[in-house]
Design brief:
mainly alpha, 3 helices, 118 residues
Length: 118
């Protein structure tokens, strides 16, 4: 599961190409045809990452401010790329992990019918 999440691999066949953009899933796997749109990852990864990345960045920001007292633009130049990169990377990994977990557990919508071909 970790390899599939970190390298954005298809949960069925292991092919690359889970994402079509920075954080958006491709419509389906180019190798096995698994429909990625059938999975409902939701907004959980975004909410989780907001808290985790915020908590991890506040400590170093405070340390830099209290130690060096730089102007505001230094913080913007220093921390904006860190936050942006961590957010995009984190969204990709957590969304891929949740999709993989849904596939592995054969999670389906509450309609009761399986919408994914095996």
């Amino acid at each position: 599961m970790a390899a599939a999440a970190f390298f954005a691999l298809c949960p069925r066949c292991g092919a690359k190409g889970l994402f079509s953009g920075l954080t958006g899933f491709a419509p389906k796997c180019g190798t096995c045809g698994l429909d990625y749109q059938a999975f409902n990852v939701g907004d959980g990864p975004a909410a989780f990452l907001t808290m985790v990345i915020g908590a991890l960045v506040v400590g170093p920001v405070l340390w830099v401010q209290l130690t060096f007292e730089p102007p505001l633009w230094v913080h913007l130049v220093l921390w904006a790329p860190v936050i942006l990169g961590a957010t995009i990377w984190g969204l990709r990994v957590t969304k891929a992990a949740l999709l993989y977990a849904e596939f592995q557990r054969k999670a389906i919508e509450a309609t009761g019918k399986d919408i994914r071909p095996e």
